[in-house]
DNA sequence: TCCTTATGTACAA
DNA sequence: TGTACCTAAGGAC
């Protein structure tokens, strides 16, 4: 599930269930056991997300830094918590709720200073109030790298993943292979504000929907999609299927070890 | 039951 | 550019 919207939603959900409580902290899988013992029964005092990074603050300045990577998953439930399976890296449990984290790339206890270093290497996040999109455009507009690659570069813009990347480029008719330096200020403004809107909706619904109302299955009569990632999309994982707008075939290609999807007709420069 | 795939990233060569 | 890492689901047999 993990693009930025998922992580911001998790920050909200961890807060809703555990903020200002002192949960039992454990690491049944073992890799986080020492830190879990230090935090056990400490108060959760804040939660925060920046891009795909999640931070949980305990006491004054102890942070758990979580990055889900490609496989990480989080599961919330009501107390009493069932016996944890041996893949649960981190479990929080209080009198009302429990939450299990499995398969993260990162789950580590860090200091304020270490946390700041992570913020410093991330670009602006469309879901954060402090985001300055011109910082991102400054990098995009002087890069020969493709806009498709730049949108996935967390140093440039934080939180966009493979789904939002493909979908936002489709929605603006931009060829994914166009160099960043050829994106105009007007195009960048439109891409950024669209990401803000799409990702906010993603946080709200806990899924990625990018299809405009006039192109939804309800409006067009075509069958709904809804696959693993849960939402209605134009191009993501629709290789060789007809484009919702022009009927041409959606294409897929490997770009930096990830799958890129686009419509060569609708997204021709 | 095995194989592939996945919304990610870091590091080596 | 390739590979390693972490987990689970779906499809092929």
TrEMBL record:
PROSITE patterns: FPG_CAT (PS51068), ZF_FPG_1 (PS01242), ZF_FPG_2 (PS51066). SMART domains: Fapy_DNA_glyco, H2TH. Keywords: DNA damage, DNA repair, DNA-binding, Glycosidase, Hydrolase, Lyase, Metal-binding, Multifunctional enzyme, Zinc, Zinc-finger. One of its GO terms (biological process) is base-excision repair. Its cofactor is Zn(2+). Its EC number is 4.2.99.18. The keyword Zinc applies. This is Endonuclease 8 1.
